[in-house]
Design a protein that fits this description.
Largest interface: A-B, 25 and 25 residues
Oligomer: homotetramer
Radius of gyration of chain A: 17 Å
Number of strands of chain A: 2
Order of helices and strands of chain A: HHHEEHH
Distance between the termini of chain A: 22 Å
CATH architecture of the domain at 10-81 in chain A: Orthogonal Bundle
CATH superfamily of the domain at 10-81 in chain A: Winged helix-like DNA-binding domain superfamily/Winged helix DNA-binding domain
Structural class of chain A: mainly alpha
Strand content of chain A: 5-15%
CATH topology of the domain at 10-81 in chain A: Arc Repressor Mutant, subunit A
Chain lengths: ~120, ~120, ~120, ~120
DNA sequence: GTGGTCTAGACCACT
DNA sequence: GTGGTCTAGACCACA
């Protein structure tokens, strides 16, 4: 689940994981999420690291929390995450991908063969 | 040109730049490359950092250093870079791209529209 | 009414609310206050939390508890609350406010315009 | 300088301090700021805590950093901070202050006497 | 030297 | 039980 030799920081991998749970409709809006400590145990990570993932998502309004109770998926989180990730994908990932692709002498039909 | 707040290390951004020059046939095999100093000034970067980019490429045989003269694009560099970058692209970039794409509800035909 | 993502503790938000009711003469001295349960339901809060608000006010003599009957606004509560809040206001809130005000380039006459 | 018994978290006190340095024109835009470790020593705080203050400000674009070099006051930081703090002041602090003031039976002319 | 991430573990306030 | 803050200290990559 967790990739410790990835160059991407662990806390970011965790917040990506959370976003994916939301995108995949596994965690519904308004629903309570696993506690920081549960996530930490589940992912074999320090609670601080898990906490940091939640913090990040809280800052952008995807997650809310109630003191002493836990973290919840914010209302509108699905759309927010989808919009954000799509924007990022189209504006950053796609152009970069296309550029590499062309430079390496491939086209989109080749990609179909690899996938 | 240089992105100082990217997560990608600067020396890697430079060596990517160099590889791209080679792939785009802008720097021919056997040709002399700009000096470390020139690169450093051009990219507003510490000479040590520019040096490290050359070093990395030298280690994998893409660049050759003739003492007292300068750095040169190695013979066979074009093929070497192309092969390496293609492998990386197909094994890492493509699968990752496809995964993101699917999660966000797109398919390869959509991508054609964005590109 | 209740702000769950505020830094101010919920029990304090509740006891502030109660004090304000007293200051605004909405709850008279000697009068019976809503039960802990009612408050808890009204504010969508755990009864323990509502209880803690009452407890706090009971400790400083603003609220009295008659066992089996309920909570009452203590005699002299109005003056007590007013004095306490005024002291707090003048010693803490005012200096802080003035400091921020000056740093942001405003003066008290500007404030009149905003109010 | 640092208030450990304040209810406000230390890392926030530090980022407030930094904002104030900028507002007071003590740290100019584009200038290099003390390193995380220097701040930590200066404020007698753990480097992690100092780091967190910078992170917060980086997230809102007031601070920039160059890897391996240090943190810098971002271009436009002065205006950004001033605007942000003013907005906060006018929309949150002032109404709250006025409300408390009125409830406690004071008016703005009284405040002049206290200040 | 710089920032950045992570762990381990403590302590606190809140519900 | 929950989240939140903080410390101490380690390790890493980068310039």
């Amino acid at each position: 689940m967790m990739n410790f030799s990835d160059n991407k920081p662990i806390y970011q991998q965790i917040s990506d994981f959370i976003c994916n749970q939301i995108l995949d409709k596994k965690w519904a809006e308004g629903g309570r999420m696993p506690s920081v400590r549960e996530i930490a145990v589940l992912m074999e990570v320090n609670p601080n690291t898990a906490m940091r993932a939640f913090q990040t998502l809280q800052d952008i309004g995807v997650v809310e929390n109630r003191r002493g109770i836990g973290h919840f998926v914010a209302e509108g989180a699905y759309d927010a995450v989808l919009t954000m990730k799509r924007k990022e994908f189209i504006e950053t990932d796609v152009p970069q991908f296309i550029k590499s692709m062309k430079r390496l002498g491939y086209n989109l039909d080749d990609i179909k063969g690899f996938a």
